[in-house]
Design goal:
alpha/beta; 4-stranded parallel sheet; 335 residues; Rossmann fold; globular; hydrolase; asparaginase; 10 helices
Length: 335
């Protein structure tokens, strides 16, 4: 029987109502006792590095989760992280970059309703996450939620209340979990090339800001951001539109030429960004210092940019790290 480490961090799954609103209170051990059937799936231990609402989850907390996994890696066959849903996609992406190419599964799950609720989805999500983590063909970082298995860099919370809260953006779901069955699509290639020990990283640069274009936004905001941020992820209009009015070109080129990092993506949820399609984007397409987000999620772009800048400050090295495909985070393309 496989041995799984359950890493409890709080979230809705652990929350109770105390008269001031839902707040995490149940421990990982208490959550496990609600689902006695998991004893038939695997042996497990529980660690509790924190018990917080995921709204309060920060890069320093990603590192604490990473440390629990890396420190215990040799002793377990897989890992399940219990996490709040609101920032789960950020944490799943961050773990994909902090623990790369793991031949052992690292699964994140949570719930839309607390474990103690009579209508909870928590029991099935916990059970199916352990089921997937204990399967011989599972590997790398993923989110298991509502019967879907999603690559850790492709998950996004799409719904605030429904049990099928997460969607896989611009990439197929890795598998479906139907009862006690794991149904895989293209499973022979899922873990291709993964073997041996994962490559773990222990540094992030948190000075990354997401800027969403809105009509008539003043491009002088780039100057205001210089004091506190080393990188901006710019969510453009459509497939890659940046306004001609104002002084966007000077502001954007000035940001990049000052040695800071700019990643261009789209605020449209699906199908990605291509600066070369329209005149309003093409002026930026050829600038080597501007990184193209392609079809990546904003959550993955935040985590990957923090990871890349955490390894180096050299623009060419940042570029090389950024365009490296990690856990299905982007379709292969020329950087």
């Amino acid at each position: 029987m496989k041995k799984i480490l359950l890493v409890a961090t709080g979230g809705t799954i652990a929350s109770v109502e105390d008269g001031r609103g839902l707040a995490p209170a149940l421990s990982g051990e208490e959550l496990a006792r609600y689902v006695p059937e998991i004893a038939d799936v695997c042996d497990f231990d529980v660690v509790q590095p924190m018990n917080i609402d995921s709204t309060n989850m920060r890069p320093a907390d990603w590192m604490r989760i990473r440390d629990e996994i890396v420190d215990a890696y040799d002793a377990y066959d897989g890992f399940v992280v219990l996490h709040g849903t609101d920032t789960m996609a950020y944490t799943a992406a961050a773990l994909s970059y902090l623990v790369q190419g793991s031949p052992k599964p690292i699964v994140l799950t949570g719930s839309q309703q607390p474990m103690a609720s009579p209508f909870t989805d928590a029991k099935l999500n916990l059970y199916q996450s352990l089921l997937f983590a204990a399967d011989d063909r599972s590997c790398d970082v993923s989110v298991v939620f509502g019967g879907a298995v999603i690559a850790g860099t492709r998950a996004r919370k799409q719904r605030t209340m429904s049990f099928n809260a997460f969607t896989s953006v611009n990439f197929p779901e890795i598998a479906l979990v139907r009862g006690e069955r794991i149904v895989r699509a293209g499973s022979p290639a899922t873990c291709a090339g993964i073997g041996g020990a994962p490559r773990a990283y222990d540094s992030l640069n948190e000075r990354v800001f997401v800027l969403k274009l809105t009509p008539e936004m003043n491009p002088s905001i780039f100057n205001l951001l210089k004091r506190d941020y080393d990188a901006v992820i710019l969510e453009t209009f459509g497939i890659g539109g940046i306004p001609d009015y104002g002084d966007y070109r000077r502001a954007i080129f000035g940001w990049v030429d000052s040695g800071r990092t700019l990643v261009v993506t789209t605020q449209v949820p699906e199908e990605g960004c291509d600066l070369g399609v329209y005149e309003v984007g093409r002026a930026y397409a050829g600038h080597r210092g501007i990184l193209k987000g392609g079809d990546m999620t904003t959550e993955a772009l935040v985590a990957k940019t923090m990871w890349a800048l955490g390894q180096t400050s050299d623009p060419d090295e940042i570029r090389d790290l950024f365009y490296r495909t990690v856990n299905h985070d982007r379709l292969a393309e020329e950087g």
